[in-house]
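Researcher: Last one for today. Full complex below.
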Amino acid sequence: MPFLSVQDLSFSYPAEQNGVGVAVDRVSFTVEKGSFVAILGHNGSGKSTLAKLLNGILIPERGEVLVDGIRTTDEDRILELRRKIGIVFQNPDNQLVSSIVEEDVAFGPENVGMPPKVIAERVEEALNVVRMNEYRRAAPHTLSGGQKQRVAIAGVLALGPECIVFDESTAMLDPVGRAEMMEVIRRLYKEHSITVLLITHYMEEAAKAERVIVMNDGAIALDGTPKEVFSEVETLWKLGLDVPQSTELLHLLSADERVQERIQLPKGIFEETEAARLLRRLFEARP
Amino acid sequence: MSVVTFEHVGYTYSAKTPFEHEALKDLSFTLQEGRVTGLVGHTGCGKSTVAMLLDGLERPTSGRILIDGRDLWEEPKKVREIRRRIGLVFQYPEYQLFEETVEKDIAFGPRNLGKSEDEIRTLVHSAAQFVGVGEDLLKKSPFELSGGERRRAAIAGVLAMDPELLVLDEPAAGLDPRGRADILGGVCAYRREKQNRTVLLISHSMEDMARFADDLIVLKEGELLFHGTTKEVFCRPDLVREAGLALPQITRITNALCDLGIPEGITTTEEAAIEILKRLDS
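Model: Here's the assembly. Have a good evening.
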């Protein structure tokens, strides 16, 4: 059984909340346990609505979401469900509640009534995973954006989730903060077997996932490996998205006769070393 | 306006307290009229402090800021007059919208400058046009707009004051690729269509700088590391790394192929494709 199962899911916001049209429109997909899926889409494509439907913050209008077999509409089991799937949001300043890092991380476990000894262990372990243990006594406002987001991840981790949804959690960070987050995300799914759903509009982040789902107008437009998805350059452009620059360069070149006479450039290349290798081959080839 | 010069500018936050922090050290540069200059550097390098000083919100601890050769703080009472010629767009400006309609919000600035109703109408509509805020949006409440639309409305509010020097602090942060291009492209259109407008664009996205900045100022820990054309900076991966930044992927790929005769410092994929095809012919 897949960890996450979304079947025929639809949702629209009520008119008084600026509800224009359907935010999520008959979406179906499944996610296996321990995988790393990126969800791409321009602003307003339904990505964040989808995230909120996954842990029952929003209730489907049609269709259903099952997390490890629990339906998000099952009120008796909603707390159990939310301990399985945590969300890290966009704004690093909106998610921390305490004036000391370790107390902030302990907030979730305290709320669900864990014994103090377990809480202390969980907090330490979570801060270790995000490499923030040396800051455990620090005040959150003295941290950088990337560090705050890592504390927010630790707060989710302390509850022992099986899946974490990152809802544009890197959008407000500088390049260094984004790199720190991506490193933590990599460890979460590689070393701790946590299922990761990364909502982003940075292509280089999506390229690191095992699978990329592209949303448009509330529906799934593309779904495949990064290589398969980035092969659809024209489609992604039409959807208001970019492709990695290496993919774009090879796409532009392969449209030219002089290149076609020499070699056939593969589609969907997003690694710079591979792109450079292909360009060398192009120069070596004779028409 | 024309020329903006920083002359040995230093700025220290909370001087003579335990929180004392020297944000800028002996910083000197000149912004050329009619050009888009990018200000880049790692978080905490002093980029936003430069913006604040340029807008006359704080006074440099040392050194002078010259505008058209005149010291901004020569007569502290007249700083306000000079500030009218400078437009500053803060980070996340959409949080500052407050009027009932987008149109009224954009008109707030020019109205404060004492423009006539006719002038205000023209200024509002032309500013809205630069950043793609259509007629339908002008009539809406700012709170009915999407995040990207709200950001564009806030920037239009500054453009409507028709500033000679426009300073934008991370104007595209958090937006999707189309949103980024709409805003930065709009700012460049403003610079192109109006005469002698100077733009200072603060960002840590080297990809955006590659497309929109003519010149770059690279800061490191409050000090000037380099000031030159965007191309010159892109030919210096060592400097970019020292500043804690990364060149765009396209520049890294093509810089690695310079032994094949491909020039260094390529900024966009279009440029890379042209240069590569040129060399295939020879």
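The mean pLDDT of chain A is 92. The interface with chain B takes residues 18, 42-44, 90, 144-145, 168, 171-172, 174-177, 201, 204, 240-242, 244-246, 248-249, 252-253, 256, 258-259, 262, 272, 275-276, 279-280, 282-283 of chain A (CB under 8 Å).
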